[in-house]
């Protein structure tokens, strides 16, 4: 009888484990910070495209064009070796064979390397007068580029914090710290890492396609094709209290 009484009391002696509710998710605010800066290039390449189609097999037009181009570079004090033939293509005019057709469509592309990009404004009109159909600036270089990238990134992050602080202060709250931070790249694709923090229409738009976000990012900046554009865009999630 005593053994039965102890067995009945044992279940009652087990400790009761309290059910602890999971902590409530933090209150957050998601903001986008952006910054940009343009650098003057110290070096650049200029691609010059010339097109011919009037019986070039039997004329000296291409030779005259190249002589005129070399003359412009000489007057500008540019060494001849700075100009190289980048590409050359030919096709039969009107779709006919270029071997049996007297008229051949010829395209020549030169690469001109400039160590003094400041002469571009004076140089371009003279290059056009030599018969260039298209001029394109490429390979812009500046030795301070990497350092400026770091500076612009810092300004973009500070811009995000400033926007968040202003909004939260007006709402009677206070920033606590950063919960998540993602750099927005123009060629970014895939799943949005901050999708859980986006609400309503913006969240649906982002989860459906990132092209809208890329368009928004691109519209912030107006490019200058003769300068190096450095930009940074961050989406930052701050905890608030």
Automatic annotation (TrEMBL):
Keywords: Signal. InterPro entries: SIMPL/DUF541 (IPR007497). The keyword Zinc does not apply. Pfam families: SIMPL. Gene3D superfamilies: Protein of unknown function (DUF541), domain 1 (3.30.110.170), Protein of unknown function (DUF541), domain 2 (3.30.70.2970). Residues 1-18 form the signal peptide. The keyword Signal applies. This is SIMPL domain-containing protein.
